[in-house]
Amino acid sequence: MLKHEYYKAFAAYAGCNLGLAAAAAALCAFIAPAAAGSGIPEVKAYLNGVDAHSILAPSTLFVKIFGSVLGVSAGFVVGKEGPMVHTGACIASLIGQGGSRKYHLTWRWLRYFKNDRDRRDLITCGAAAGVAAAFRAPVGGVLFALEEAASWWRSALLWRTFFTTAVVAIVLRAFIQLCSTGTCGSFGEGGLIMYDVSAAKVTYSAADILAVILLGILGGIFGSLYNYLVDKVLRTYSIINERGAVVKILLVITISLLTSICSYGLPWLAACIPCPTDVSASCPNTDVSGNYKSFQCPPGHYNDLASLFLNTNDDAIRNLLSTSTVKEFHISSLFIFFGAVYCLGIITYGIAIPSGLFIPVILAGACYGRLVGRLFEPISKLDVGLFALLGAASFLGGTMRMTVSLCVILLELTNDLLVLPLVMLVLLISKTMGDIFNKGVYDQIVKLKGLPYMEAHAESYMKNLVAGDVVTGPLITFSGVEKVGNILHALRSTGHNGFPVMDEPPFSDAPELCGLVLRSHLLVLLKGKIFSTNKLLARNEILSRIGALDFAKAGSGKGIRVEDLDIEEEDMDMYVDLHPITNASPYTVVESMSLAKAALLFRQLGLRHMCVVPKSQGRPPIVGILTRHDFLPEHVLELYPHIRLRK
């Protein structure tokens, strides 16, 4: 480039990007397809009770780490923040399932975490740690887990996430100190404050408040449009990606080439600007990162678009948030950069690479925030760098619909508490404006992926239905002492994960609900082959031969399958006592309970099964079982098509 060999420079630039992009795509396409995308929607769904296939597997963790490094290095308009949340959740899941036998990473002491509640808590802490590491925002990580990730929260989880993010901050600080000599490249620049704007004087008037309100409205409109377009692009990509791994890689290469053309070609549209004389930074700058890029300009001049495009995403944000540099970027350059980043961010998300949404949104928001700052410059007292920060906040609020966590993350990123009232105002306005049009981007992606996510509130039409109205399918029940053949037939012919257990004479005076037994526990019991030829209670023998840890939650791919059972023909007519493995106190609701109340109870308690019992006596002791599927709008509307969703 310095020798004016522009075509060779573009070939080298695009070639490096293509190579890195193809490597990231190959990892995702061939090893762990679940690692593509942000990962936050999947983590959010898991913490809601949806254990989708391979989203927290060790292979997903491996691809998430290296694919994210390759994807960001390839120059895509993506961030590392979403993948780091997913990475933290994967590490926590690995600990919560006792390590990985497949990769010989097991520790005996981890078996105490092998239950649903502790594993869910660990993954919540892992998600908080990911945010804390990505933004160097420990308190923001805790609030992110509380506001966006977790569906169930309790007081003990608060201090656990706080402790986790505090450790992250200490470790980060130690590595930054270790790398202070420059041996680690650009890592740790700025210390724990990534985008310091505290040097700007924060004074504002009525005109500034009007500008902030305008930014909030723009953020809500741009954010809802962004979510709508991301949804359409993801639907298109899902059709394309179904054609195989090679097509996925070709799509990634196409987007990489387009990104390289924009990043290298658009700076040619900008005019060279004379270097300012009152700045401490070197101008023009020919380093790998930094401000005032010379590009094709003569000595003493810089290209403002090149300072944004031909830079790392973090440096581009740092340049946009720079204070006391009103005229650094021309208005036309800001328009071009905003349009390019907005569009590239939309078409890049969804390809087969780990990619986060935070950085593209912050880039685009800071760009139009700086634009508004330039337009209000004659009547405003705020620095354009602060306008850029407020623009980033408005776009984040308009796309992700978070408030408290984003506010604290931005304050920890920028180290300026004085701008807090304005950030709060712009986030509230942009979220309110965006909610008029559609849901947050992560909620849309969860729905698009078909994950049965349960909202915190019940739909309004559920008030007109009762729990018994949505009970479907033939109910499969077991006796307290059941035939092995009956159990095996039920396990093979259904995919149910829970079965009611009923006691009948002579074990009880009348038929009664004994409890609920899980599929995984039945498989452990059948594998132990503790059978008897007669209907006998065998509690002591079962508990002496099978320990409590044998029933611990299995990790990914480790559970016993029906195919693993070695049941012989003569065993089929024998009996097995289910009482020792039956949950004798399952959550039950009367069939006449409002479906809305039942849905709230189901979600707030984090249930997997809810037993529906009859209102009157003289009937079988159980009417049916409600699962997550029974509360979904699609299921209810299929049963009662005359009911329509009302907002």
Give a nutshell description of this structure.
With 647 residues, the chain is mainly alpha-helical.
What does this entry look like structurally?
By secondary structure, the protein is mostly helical. Helix content is 51%, strand content 6%. It is built from 23 helices and twelve strands. The protein has helices spanning 6-30, 40-46, 58-73, 81-96, 116-135, 138-149, 155-178, 206-241, 245-265, 304-309, 313-320, 331-348, 358-375, 384-400, 404-414, 420-435, 441-448, 484-493, 519-528, 539-545, 595-604, 628-631, 633-639, and strands spanning 99-100, 105-106, 273-274, 301-302, 478-479, 481-483, 498-503, 512-518, 575-577, 588-590, 610-613, 624-626. The strands form five sheets. The protein has a three-stranded mixed beta sheet with strand order 5-7-8. A hairpin with a 4-residue loop joins strand 1 and strand 2 (105-106). Helix 1 (6-30) runs antiparallel to helix 9 (245-265) and helix 15 runs antiparallel to helix 16 (420-435). The two termini are 57 Å apart. The mean pLDDT is 89.
